[in-house]
Amino acid sequence: MSELRFEDSPVRDVTPAPRRGFRLGKANAKLMGVCSGIADYFGWDVTLVRIGFVAGTLVGFGSLLLVYLAIGLLAD
What is the C-alpha to C-alpha distance for residues 69 and 18, in angstroms, rounded to an integer? Predict the structure, then answer.
């Protein structure tokens, strides 16, 4: 028969940490930290979020610029 061995190591908690509310990303901010905050919240690359905002602003005739300013002024 084989011997069973159990190590006295702490059990790792595998539950994900609760996601906190949306915050502006001040550490990686270029302008107000909106794109950085969105990237942190969803776990995306901040460069892709910035490219998406620029493309959306150009396609939407500047409407995302107002959304960006509103998020920047209302968040945090």
Answer: 28
